[in-house]
């Protein structure tokens, strides 16, 4: 449970709180799609920087997890204290750094059931989405929403504070030797980077897309909680899928279904297409994550850590590029079409096995 709560705070709030808050900020802060893309990318750049820094942090895991969770709570609430776009960029960057620290060190803590721990990502997204839905229904401002989410993060952090001080993290394995960059390793890295690009556009803009077709928060506000619920359920089911079909086939299937989910708002008008997208993309992004990491371990053997680190970096770059492309195109439709096409291309190339 402590690991689940930690990832719910770090990912559901530190990484993804901005998504359900975007429609509110568009309404009361005049934020446009391009500005939203820049704020999202600042958070993803912070995540990349945080992940790289985590590899070199020579601190006890308990201190890093606690510090990261506390930082998420502080910088989330601080979003309400300023109307400066530059300050918002810095705060979202800091939240990305902190969320990466928590994810990396919680992942190495040695919990017995990792699928339950990683279900925290979907749990956090669902809880954050429901909180924002409740706030929208009551006509809360974006400032109030940021303070409320910061308070939720603070309460959760206090609740699990002692759990991350009672036992040390599992000892990390030494960096493996003998890894060689093969065409297969490059292929996996490229496809994982495309995965990051493909899922992040709907993961960033789904609630804003829903608000464009229906202005009733009671209806459009359900898109993000639905995304989180699908992520939660699929994470718990991913283990049995991988055992039955294998990691490579599971990963390919996840990309195909995700591509359909990314493109479905273009083909199915109205809220139905957006909710279908939330289910299909939310229900595959954690499955693709788990299957991709396991496939890297199979391909790289003793050099798996190097390949997984490279894939994670490519994923982060893809996440950064997604919102920037939306800002450059000034069109969600073109961006979604590009993302869906790249996901299908990556699924095709994943079919080639060594």
From TrEMBL:
Can you name this protein?
Uncharacterized protein
A cellular component term, taken from the record's GO annotations: plasma membrane
Provide the organism lineage as a comma list: Bacteria, Pseudomonadati, Pseudomonadota, Betaproteobacteria, Nitrosomonadales
Q: Where are the transmembrane segments?
A: 36-55, 67-87, 93-111, 116-137, 143-164, 185-210, 222-239, 251-268, 274-294, 306-326, 332-350
Stretch forming the signal peptide: none
Q: Which InterPro entries does this entry report, sorted A to Z?
A: MFS_4, MFS_trans_sf
Which PANTHER family has this protein been placed in?
A: PTHR23537, SUGAR TRANSPORTER
Q: Which UniProt keywords apply?
A: Membrane, Transmembrane, Transmembrane helix
